[in-house]
Amino acid sequence: MGHHLELVGRTAAEIAALVAPHVDRPFRARQVAGWIAERNAAGFAEMTDLPLALRADLAERFTITEPATLQVVPSLDGSMKYLLGLADGVAVECVAMREGAKATFCLSSQAGCAVGCTFCVTGALGAGRNLRPAEIVGQYRRLLRDLEPDVERVNLVFMGMGEPLLNTANLGPALAALMERVSPKRVTVSTAGILPGIRWLAGLERRPKLAISLNAPDQERRQQIMPITRRYPLADLMAAVRAFPLERGRRITFEYVLIRGFNDAAADAAAIARLIRGIPAKVNVIPLNEDAEHFPGLRRPEAEAVDLFAVTLRDAGLTVTVRWSRGADVAAACGQLRGRAGGFAPASTQSGR
Ligand code: SAH
Ligand code: SF4
Question: Which of 72, 175, 191, 344 is least surrounded by CB atoms within 10 angstroms?
Fold first, then answer.
């Protein structure tokens, strides 16, 4: 590895340009790019239509980094949680959720999260390092390779570990590479409301969809569970969302983690409706995934209360989905992702733990 140049996490054009000076015939560069950016090759050895000597030479100059699969945990509902090990021993999680030939991949952007929402297991872990483009795209490559050929269409959601808009330097190149393969309208970036990041996203030429983790209907309560609200107040967040350029037919998703007795009253539903009035939106209600260890005081409302909340939102004219998190039985559900670096790190990195 060392100073070898990484090829994963780049667009086909970028790969071809990097490789071009080192191939004998011009079309070889496109061949290599196709192997990596379209056919998911995990190494030069797979590129069987390249001369052996060229493969060996390229392997001396470039790397095609693959995360190590530390654990794959199937869930009762058919979703699969992956624990992937990165080169420095850090572990991150991603989840594949399948519905027939359609799949949604939930990807991580950081190995932890510094935002510190009080209802989130990743937040309880604290800050983790930013994932590099190869490590973000690597999650997609791993999940796709394992699910092909059963899956024909893939959606990507950045709802795994971390706050994607605190890692825009790596998210940008990763998105460029991913959106060559998955249409931007099937890619969603979810944020706790990092305003500079939302402005960055708004400025992209090819934009993925935006999801805002709203989680409370007013500044005061949002601040209680999402401390980032002090830094980026709700009013400013809503202004940034209203200014966000939306392609025809697109909507902003508002995620709303429903917490018993905290934000689940009928009046709260009415307040949400007022807050997002006029914005092409859908509301994704997520009944809290409880965690007795990290936030014992927070409970999921009863199913009837969840239904009533959704109905109240619908009656106010909103489009609503309820996400009874899938994969809860293996703790792969949203907000429960954690990389257990200590438990699964390769032997070489375990010293000192
Ligand atoms: N950091 C980004 C993306 C990752 S979190 C963000 O906050 O949007 C993805 C989603 O999981 C967020 O909408 C968050 O509100 C939700 N979530 C976090 N903890 C949860 C929990 N315990 N139960 C249900 N949803 C949770
Ligand atoms: Fe970070 Fe999102 Fe969890 Fe908040 S909900 S701590 S922003 S991962």
Answer: 72
